[in-house]
Amino acid sequence: MTIQLPVVGTALAALMVAAVVALITTPIVRTLAFKVGAVDVPKDARRMHKHPIPRMGGLAIFFGFILSTLVFMPLTEQLRGMLLGAVLIVILGIFDDIYALPAKPKFLVQIVAATIAAMSGNCVEFLSNPNIFSSEPYWELGWLSIPFSVFWIVGITNAVNLIDGLDGLACGVSTISSTTLLVIALTVAEPEVAILMAALSGACVGFLPYNLNPAKIFMGDSGSLALGALFASLGILSDCTIALFFIGGVFVIEMFCVVVQQVSVRLFHKRVFSYTPIHYAFIKKGMGERQVVRMFWLCEACLALIGLWIGLH
Fold first, then answer.
1. CA distance 104 to 96
2. Which position has the higher pLDDT, 116 or 164?
3. How confident is the model at residue 47, as a pLDDT?
4. Most confident option among 15-24, 143-152, 236-245
5. What is the dihedral of CA 203, 92, 54, 289, to 10 degrees?
6. What is the pLDDT of residues 29-67, one digit of tens each?
7. Distance of alpha carbon 238 from its chain centroid, rounded?
8. Residue 138: strand pairing partners
9. What percent of the chain has a predicted confidence (pLDDT) above 90?
10. Which of 79, 87, 26, 94 is nearest to 57 (CA)?
11. Is residue 181 within 8 Å of 240, Cβ to Cβ?
12. CA 191 to CA 11: how far, in whole Å?
């Protein structure tokens, strides 16, 4: 495993450009959000804020990512498909931040966006064989490659969306996970993935100061859905599908808890957890918002280290 210094320099430049763009454009997006009515008004117990906070901050994250990507990456068919799918997700998120769209059309657009990305080459073709006694180390998915990849992208997209409930939680966890994948890509000599991950990490870093408690702006669905879609697609490109379960471990845990809760309520009319998404359960137990966010960041860092070890071996 040889780290190429020119690639490191390019990745750092991509990170800095994305961070600066996100940092500069977030106040502009904040003003725009107020004008178009993309505002989160505290109207139930889940809202931790006491006054209206603008949503749509994900637009600044996406500006940082896509500008840095276009500057430092050649526009291949695979990248075009990924970006086109991400643009559709961002547009969906903007409309959802303004009008609060129903779940079914949102899910349909996510499937379309994921299909575009997968059909452009962003798809899982092999899976590690869990049977350690088998002579075949991998399973070839064949015709299942596209539907599996669509399922993967849509699943990760919604997993990231679920965690966006506390100030700085989703953005902080996304920063840790994308930076971990950046380190793996640099170490195993995947320059394209490294630059894209650097752009994603930088965009999150640029937005994070505005999103920390007390948040001046929320990323909204335009951010959490787009981050999830990009994270899933880039995880496929990095060939770290197994490691990604740990690198994005907090997202996976949140999604798992919600699914278990829904199944238990529907089948047995009983709650397994006091509240889901699970970060709200800690709030209900009396923990402060900042304390919960720091705890989840620490949990994500520990899981990311495990994923880092898996990704490098």
1. 12
2. 116
3. 58
4. 15-24
5. -70
6. 999 999 999 998 876 655 565 678 999 999 999 999 999
7. 15
8. 128
9. 58
10. 26
11. yes
12. 8
Distance CA 141, CA 127 (A): 7
Task: Measure the CA–CA gap between 254 and 179, rounded to whole angstroms.
Answer: 20
Give how far Cα 32 sits from Cα of 24, 35, 39, 94, Å: 14, 5, 10, 11
The CA distance from 250 to 248, in Å, is: 6
Which backbone phi and psi does 217 adopt, to 5 degrees?
A: -155, 145
Which residues on adjacent β-strands are paired with residue 139?
127
Please report the pLDDT score of residue 154 as a whole number: 93
108, amino acid identity: L
Please tell me the pTM assigned to this model. 0.91
CB 304 within 8 A of CB 252: no
Q: Helix, strand or coil for residue 50?
A: coil
Tally of CA atoms within 13 A in the half-sphere of 25 that contains its CB: 23
Per-residue confidence (pLDDT) for residue 311, from 0 to 100? 81
39's enclosing H/E stretch is: strand 39-40
Query: Are 234 and 204 spatial neighbours (Cβ–Cβ below 8 Å)?
Result: no
State the pLDDT at residue 241.
64
Give the residues across from 128 on adjacent strands.
Answer: 138
pLDDT at res. 41: 80
* 311 CB neighbour count, 10 Å cutoff: 23
Instruction: Show contacts of 153-156: CB within 8 Å, 24+ apart.
Output: 153/85, 153/110, 153/113, 153/114, 153/117, 153/118, 153/122, 153/229, 153/232, 153/233, 153/236, 154/107, 154/110, 154/111, 154/114, 155/232, 155/255, 156/228, 156/229, 156/231, 156/232, 156/235, 156/248, 156/251
Rounded Cα gap, residues 218 and 132, in angstroms: 45
Q: What's the token pair of residue 291?
A: 């304390």
Instruction: Using alpha carbons, list the distances in angstroms from residue 103 to 26, 92, 156, 158, 271.
Output: 27, 11, 16, 11, 22
DSSP 142: G
For the stretch 261-281, pLDDT in tens is 999 999 888 898 888 889 988
